[in-house]
Amino acid sequence: MSQGPVSISSKEQFTGILKSSKIVVADFYADWCGPCKQIAPLYETLAKSLSRPGAVTFVKINSDNNSDIASEYSVSALPTFLVFRDGKVDETIRGANPAQLKKVVEKLVTEVGSLGEGSGSGGGDWKPAEIPKGYSDITDEVELRGCELLNAADDAGPVKVLFDSSKPSALNRDGNTSPKKDFVQSGADDQLLLFIPFQSVVKLHTLQITSLPPQGEEDAPARPGVIHLYINRPQNMDFSEADDTEPTQAIEINAGDWNSNGTANIPLRFVKFQKTTSVIIYVQKGDGEAETVRIDRLRLIGDAGAKREMGKLQKVGEDE
């Protein structure tokens, strides 16, 4: 609840936020605008008190630096506040009008209270870890039908559960878990190989991995310990190919990297992930001596770009 407004630096960043948050409040301003400066403290206060991950996001857009966004939404007076619901403009406030802005916010308070946890990828109120300022959850850019997971146990959940926005059942306080497994686990050993294509060309900034193996069980799986990432592959690799190929980034996750939600927040070498069409996550080994490894959720943080044809990422058939 303490997050302030996000400063927008590109149209792609703004588009990503519109996709990942149900409600977006945008403040169009300019550094030379006196009324903009007068109402800025009020807007900052509202942002800090009402921001909700995946539900309500406040942003500030410098109209001089982002003239393409201002032009797209016909912003001709400053300040202008636009309220977006599900990516579309729902309300407009022109000028520094504190009373009108507060009135709109009062409606937001009621709506925020009615927003529950979502069930689609990239949405929902469950927050596994902090999202770096200036970026957004772009998990909903994953093309689920093109994902492929190798070495998954037969009785684990389908690969799509990794991108579910709801809280993992393993975190339920009453100790009851869903009868349908909402996690994936390796089968033969402690390795997993996951191919993730995207609906658009994205910029990846952070990878969030949630792993919640049961405590105290004799044959409990391990959390991921060593992970290799590969980008822009048209299809999945096999394990021998992954072992023989230099990764885009190699990651070692230590015990202290996991937070109370069982989530490791992994910063990526952003310069290497600027134009990403697909990513392969190779869990090379678990963090202990267990024979298997488990992942409950994945979140991808960054910027989303324009949609593209997914046919270019269709997997090659066995007969080709």
UniProtKB/TrEMBL annotation:
Residues 1-110 form the Thioredoxin domain. PROSITE patterns: PITH, THIOREDOXIN_1, THIOREDOXIN_2. Keywords: Disulfide bond. It holds the Pfam family PITH. One of its GO terms (cellular component) is cytoplasm. Residues 127-320 form the PITH domain. Gene3D superfamilies: Glutaredoxin, PITH domain. This is Thioredoxin-like protein-like protein. The lineage of its organism: Eukaryota, Fungi, Dikarya, Ascomycota, Pezizomycotina.
